[in-house]
Amino acid sequence: MSTLVLDSASRWFGNVMAVNDVSLTIGPGVTGLLGPNGAGKTTLMAMMSGFLAPSAGQVTLDGKPVWRNTKTYRRIGLVPERELSFGYLTGRQFVRANADLHRLPDAAAATERILEVVDMVEPGGRRLDTYSKGMRQRIKIAAALVHDPAVLLLDEPFNGVDPRQRMHLMDLLRRLGDEGRTVLFSSHILEEVERLARHIEVVVSGRHAASGDFGAIRRLMTDRPVQYAVQSSDNRRLATVLMAQESVRSVGLRRDYLDVQVGDLGSFAVDLPALARQHDVTLFELSPSDESLESVFAYLVAR
Amino acid sequence: MNGTIAKLALQALLGRRRFLLLLAFPVLLIGLVALVTVLVDGDAAYEVLPNLGYPLVLPLVAILAASSVLGPEVDDGSIVYLLSKPVNRYGIAISKWLVALGATLAAGALPILVAALIAGDSTRATALFVGAVVAGTAYSALFLAISAVTRHAVIASLMFVLIWESLLGNLFSGIAWLSIGQWGLRIGHEISAELPDPADLGYAIVAGILVTVVGVWFAGDRLRSFSLRGED
């Protein structure tokens, strides 16, 4: 059981703030690091795996800093986003080299055991450059797991992996989490994180935006104010009616539509048709104007 | 020294197309010297070595070897696969340097010996070979260190060899004090006086050892601080 702690960690590159004062504690089980592209996930991952010095603050594994501390890799397995460039090795040779680098007492047996875990025993004899994306990903995971680490860090492990392989990978990671390992993976896809992670940490623009189990994050995301564009037969009258509603925060009168900001999505959706009929207004169109994940994230930060 | 790292470095060296280039240098050098020996009377064949083989082929081979064992991995970041292991960073640097050194001696120094023997006079050939071993050792360490700091390692190393050692070295004799090639020649001079005597012997020995040790240590230290920068 190992715990990875970021204590007010920041990282800047010149004038660019990549990670801004992030404090996190990552314990056993599967944790998802969620954020849009460019949010600083890779920078965070690099700091947590000892491949980047924090500009300020600390990153520690079980109390010991990870930067310039070669020994921490006994307990960390890292699956980088980088492609494998060892195309001239077979999958088995690559995993075996990793086992040898860890100086495992029985490297050959450990290699076979882990190839079996990721279901790569048979393709293990082929060269890496003949593998599909999903196979390469599984070999990378095998290489990271061969020394039975307490902590597994994966940077965007599902990128470019087909859905069936993705399910396999998810099952594998879930199993590792259930065994009591600290598993952290990053992703920019909410559904991915929801399906796998017990605990979710959200980062946006280098900041730690939210933290909690997936229910809590979901609630944060659905309870946020939503913007709608409404077109009707009488926009002005509809605006007066809507403004009186508890669920509506603001109404803007545009050229040919209404800009409605809604606080409580549920009751607004239920009430709108009834209100329109009651006041003899015909609704032509109702469309959410900011459903993209980016705006969801932006809301979490501004909160 | 780490056997696994050395094995991977050797595979990286042999597995790439650059290896053919590495092989072409000694073949061409020996071929040229053999051709000149047959076609031209006198000592013209030997002259190829101090003018082309030693100052150019040897450092170029060292650049190719040193940048092949470290450069591509640092460039594309895949060295994290080696560095995310509890392996001493200086051990990694030493292992990679030994592979680069082996290649430099095999494809740079040894062909110079063979070519010099073809051109005649074994004392002179031995002297030049010793000089090439010394210079090859220091070159490979220096170029390894350069590969660990910059993505433009090949260009930077070429500039050192072509502009500093060759161009400026020919214009200003003082550069001999800061030229790896000249240190090697000075040590070879002890065996055969036909080699030039550009600097102090003790200085040449100490400077050669210093560049080698500091170069390898520096490469290891850079690996200890290797940073991954995200695309974002």
Automatic annotation (TrEMBL), chain A:
PROSITE patterns: ABC_TRANSPORTER_1, ABC_TRANSPORTER_2
Record keyword Chaperone present: no
InterPro entries reported for this sequence: AAA+_ATPase, ABC_transporter-like_ATP-bd, ABC_transporter-like_CS, P-loop_NTPase
Entry GO MF terms: ATP binding
Domain ABC transporter positions: 4-230
UniProt xrefs under Pfam families: ABC_tran (PF00005)
Keywords: ATP-binding, Nucleotide-binding, Transport
Superkingdom in the source lineage: Bacteria
KW Hydrolase (keyword) present: no
CDD domains per the UniProt record, alphabetical: ABC_DR_subfamily_A
Family: Belongs to the ABC transporter superfamily.
Name this protein carries in UniProt: ABC transporter ATP-binding protein
Source organism of the structure: Nocardioides pinisoli
Automatic annotation (TrEMBL), chain B:
Lineage, top ranks: Bacteria, Bacillati, Actinomycetota, Actinomycetes, Propionibacteriales
Organism field: Nocardioides pinisoli
Pfam families in the cross-refs: ABC2_membrane_2 (PF12679)
Superkingdom classification of source: Bacteria
Transmembrane segments annotated in the record for this chain: 20-40, 52-72, 93-119, 125-146, 158-181, 201-220
Keyword terms: Membrane, Transmembrane, Transmembrane helix
Keyword Transmembrane helix on entry: yes
Full protein name: ABC transporter permease
